[in-house]
Structures are given as C-alpha cells and as structure tokens.
Design goal:
The complex is a heterodimer of chains A (282) and B (327).
Chain A: H1 11-48, E1 55-56, E2 59-60, E3 66-71, H2 80-88, E4 100-108, E5 115-117, H3 122-128, E6 145-154, H4 162-166, E7 172-174, E8 180-182, H5 192-196, E9 203-205, E10 210-212, H6 218-221, H7 228-232, E11 238-242, H8 249-256, E12 272-275
Chain B: H1 3-26, H2 41-46, H3 55-59, H4 63-70, H5 79-83, H6 101-109, H7 146-149, H8 157-171, H9 190-202, H10 210-215, H11 221-231, H12 245-251, H13 256-259, H14 278-290, H15 298-303, H16 307-319
Classes of the chains: A alpha+beta (282), B mainly alpha (327).
Chain lengths: 282, 327
Amino acid sequence: MKRDDKPAVPARRIFLRDISRGAACAGAAAGAAGLLAAASADSGKSGTGSAESFPTPDYDWNKHRWAYAVDATKCIGCLRCVEACKRENNVALDAHHFRTWVERYVYIDGEEKPHVDSMSDPLNIEASGSEKLYRFANRYKDAKVDKAFFVPKLCNHCTHPACVQVCPTGATYKTRDGVVLIDHKYCIGCQYCVQACPYGARFFNHAKGVTDKCTWCYHRITKGLLPACVEVCPVEARMFGDLNDRDSVVSRFIRDNRVQVLKPETGNAPNVYYIGLDKEVT
Amino acid sequence: MPKHIARLVLLIVAFGVAGLAAKAFFTTDSFYRFGHYRADSVPEIAALTPVFQTPRACRSCHAPRVVEWSASSHKSVTCEACHGAAPGHPQSLQATIPTDTVRLCTQCHEKMPGRPLSSIRQVDSSEHHATATQCIACHNPHAPKIEAMAQKPAFDRKAVAASAAVCAGCHGENGVATNEAWPNLAGQNAAYIARSLGSFKIGARKDATMAPMAESVADDDVPKLAAYFSSLSCHAPAGKRAGNAAAGGKLAIQCSVCHGDNGRPVNTSWPSLVGQNSAYLASALTAFKDGQRTDPFMSPVARALSDSDIADLASHFAGLGCGATSN
C-alpha cells in the first residue's frame, strides 16, 4: 500500500471525533436535565416528606416494629392458619406452595430420628381429601409415640435478610416497621432469594412468574388488624405485636419466656420467636 | 496532555454522563426514596383488601349468636375459623354453615399424638358417641359444653314478665298460644327461643307479625325473654290432631337423632317438640318443605316428607304432651 493513498486525517478519526463531540453535547444536556429533575424531586419531597405518614394516611411505619411469636407447646395442628393464609393472600390451592405451614415431629420409641411430615405428605393429602384443604392424618394413632409436637413456620422477617441482599432488582426489601416485602412489579422471577432463604420461606408463584412469601399480612396490620393466621388460631399459639409497645402480646411473650429463633447461626437475626421447639427443629 | 488521551477522557466522561442521565430517566421516581427499592410498592401492598373480617363484623347482624359464642369455651375460635372467610358477605351470601360437623370438629378435637391435651379437649371420634351422626346432635357449636347449655342468664322475673306482656298477646300469658297455629313457648329451650327471636330480628326468618315484634326487642332482652318463657311450665296442648299418631311415631325415629327420643333434644339449641301444638308443628314442617323457612338440616328432611307424613308427625309429637319430664 502506498503512503500517499492515505488522507492527512483518517476518516475513522473524523468519525470518532464527530461522534464523541455529539455524544458529549447530548450527554451533558441530558445529564443536566436529569440532575435538575432529580434535584427538584428531592426538594419537593423534603418539603412534605417528614410530615406525612407513610405508607398510608392512617399508618406511620416509623412508629412500629413488628414481631411474631409462636408457642409450639399450644399448637394442635388444626391447620386453620394455613387455610386462612391461602384464602387471605390468594395463594395457589395446592399442597406444595405455602406462605405459612405446620410441621409435625414424631419421635417413635426405639428410633433415633423423628418422623417429620407436613401438608405435602401424600397421607395427609389423602386425609384431607383434596389439595385445597389441609389436615394431618392420624397416622401415628397406634404407634408407640415417645414425643410428638407441631411447629408452625412462616417467613422470619429477618433483621438482616439474606433474600434482600441477593435480589438483583431491588424487588424485595425490608420496610421500616420490620416487614420483608416483595414488589411484584419489579420481581423478575430469578429465584435467587428462594435459594438464599435459609428457612425455605419463599416459593415461586408460577401463575404470576414472581417469588412469593408471607407478608405478615401487611395489608391487614397497616389497618389495625391481625395477620389472618393469628386471627383464626383457636389456641393462641400464634401471636403478633409491636416491639415498640412494651405491653404488646409479643413484647410480653419475649419477656416472660426463654424464647429462641430458628437457625440463629446464619446471622439473619429472625423476628419470629419460638418456645417449645426441640433439638431436631431448625 | 496528548491529544488521543484527551479524546479518550472526554469519551469516558461522555459515556458516564449519558449513563447517569439514562438511569435518572429510566428509574421510577420513588425508587431510592427510602432505599434500594420502589417506595410506591409499600402503599400498593398496604392497600390490598383484607379477606378475613373479624367477629366485630359478624356482631353487627348476628348479635345473639356472637353473645352466646363470646361467653362460651369456643370464644377463642373466631367465626371465620369454622364458617370460612366471607368477603362480600352478606350481599354475596358466601358465608357457609358447615354441614359435616364430624369432619369439621375433628380437625381440632380428634385425639392425636402431638396434640397437647392442655390446649384442647380431644376425643376418639370412633368411640365418642358412635351412634350420633353429627356432633351438633348433642353439642351447640356456639356454646359446646353440655353442662354450660343448661345454664340460663339471671333475670328479674317481674321486669321481664312486663316486657313479655307484648308476646303474651299471641303466645299467651303462660306461654301457651291463644291460637293453635302459633307456637307454645312454655318450657321451650331458652337457646332456641333466643335464636329464633334473633333470626326474626335480623330478618333471617320472615313473618309479617313476628318481624316487627322482634325488631322492637332490645339485644340485651333477647336472652332474658328466652329464659323467662323457658322457665314457664309446659302445658300439654288440648287441640285436635288430624294425622295418625301411630304412623307418625314410626317416622319420628329420624327426628330423634336431633330432637331426642322423647322430643326433648340434648342440644338445647334445637327446639324441644314436647307441649307443642299439632297445627303449629305441621305448619313449621310445611314451611321447611316449601322453602319458606330454610335450615341446612331441616330443609332436606322436610322435603322428603309427604303432606300426610307431616300431619302424622305433628299428631305424634303433639300427642306426647309434656312427655317424660326429664331427659
């Protein structure tokens, strides 16, 4: 190739120069506009943000710190809570997706490990007659049972939730009143959070293509109602209340009992407090 | 600075500014308001409509039932634990009256390893009163303890007798009706009188004469009036009986499951049939048969009866008089 064939300034450089100038101008203009917009939005909020209550006019999330308590020594395994949760939160009526569930631990004489079953067990599905209704089969009626008990479980609404940390889109988050929620509009259904939760509290909602889990019935507690599972529990094994209120049922429960949480070693700092668990319950 | 480095720096700055601008443009306003999430999603979730109401909601219409329930050992079991959530009730008529009470009650009360005896009374359903087909044959679900059913509220007899004078116009001063087509109240189960009066009050039972009468009775007076009439002594009806009492006696076997062998039910929420007018019994059965009165248990039973069956049954039960006094 002859040197003379080349122009003094290559066309490539001219192209790049023009492009970069154009981009710089457009970028600066858009950036300035964006910053201005952001600044005006911020100033707009700071003017009213401190006075109005959030998230609803009647409920200020800065005034509450919710917690949940379970007295497993009282639970009778009637599963009213499970059915109520399904209906309250429109969860798929099958025996495999639950926002809250109950496990049965049965220690039989002469055996090391407990038998653990829950609503998805085929015998229990058979006893209920349908996957839409839930019932524990009386399967250990004639066995020599050393010890047996029921353990209600649900999302622990951890203080340091692993599920929130792994969410790539900010679709799951911790509210100021202590509830871990899912923004179904921003959830992309990647299910990292399902993997991250040490408690198996999250499941995939196949109909909507998003992750789902217990919200402590956020739509109820912000209206002064109890979560549906607490509302229907006939033996008061499930309790819900505000840690900011020293006289709330949960504050008193934690003060009056030696409570424990599930899997404290994971560092998630769960907010569901139990009594009456056993060494095999995690 | 060499020219090509300057160009590169300019390019990087331009891309950075373009990126930030794009982010500012595409990110929802509320996204960073409180943190790395969309703040608007919180009020969206909080705005969902609760499905489960509370017993407070039931109380506004079903006051007599709620009062009975809230004093019973079942008071920790909310209405919707058994009747189901009732969004849109009463317009949607979706609240359910459980028909299979054995299945429902054993959900909590079946004896089972792991179910703490300190929490709840438990029975082995295969042994516990194996002849009764339904739990409610003996137990009132709103006040399930048998011994508690016999208790009646304390009342000032004179004061209640004064307000009962309005009832006496039709049901008689002694609780014996002035017309055979109307029910005798003397000796009737108090819980049943209270329930009937409450049903007329809220319009669940309809009657041109009774409805306005019941409306004028205060909520607190319902159990007192019921206890008053229940305490009056039963009178055997003297009226003529159209049907064949002997044939009715054979048919009455199916009635005895709930109403007891001698017309006096164990569960005092169900009506006692002794000391009742033949004409009234026949008209009540006919009302269930025609659908003018509805009841999840009585309606199917009555529909299966012919007109002559109804006359026979009415004759049989009226013929029992006040029957054996004890049950």
